[in-house]
Amino acid sequence: IRRCSCRCPSATPERGWRELLRDADEMVDEFEALLEELRELARESVILVEGRKDRHALEELGIRGDIVQVQDAGGILGVAEDLAAQGRSAIILTDWDRKGGHLAELLRNALRACGVQYDDSIRARVSMLSKKEIKDVESLPAFVSLLDERGRAAR
User: Beta-carbon neighbour count of residue 92 at 10 Å?
Assistant: First the structure.
């Protein structure tokens, strides 16, 4: 399959432009629902991200609440112990590259060891929806804008 400049699959005889645009519109809807779910979860849980750019990206998407930069917050075990002491749950939202995957695994282990409930399903769903077009949290605002443009083109 050839790809156009926006990295979406190009139309082929088997797959027409209308089908591609419908897929883009569905992806916009799925991503909007995912972001709304994250906004709701952020009211009760602490979102764990890798760094400052990730926190800013979430804020740009209207996600408010406690967003903790793991690398600046006393380390993985320190974050887990603080959450346990506060009785808070966590949302793991590290990048979905190799480094982010490793950090997510370390966070899961530390949170589990401290008895902290966590959700890492949002990270997995974002990774699946972005289909390798992006690999990090800081790219989410630009990706959402791109999806929105594709969705408008479908209408």
Answer: 23
49 pairs with which residues across the strands?
A: 69
Residues 6+ apart with CB under 8 A from 26: none
Amino acid at 63: I
pLDDT tens, residue by residue, 15-27: 444 444 456 677 7
d(CA 135, CA 7): 14
Tell me which DSSP letter residue 133 carries. Answer: S
Residue 63 predicted with pLDDT over 90: yes
pTM confidence score: 0.81
Q: What is the pLDDT of residues 103-114, one digit of tens each?
A: 999 999 999 999
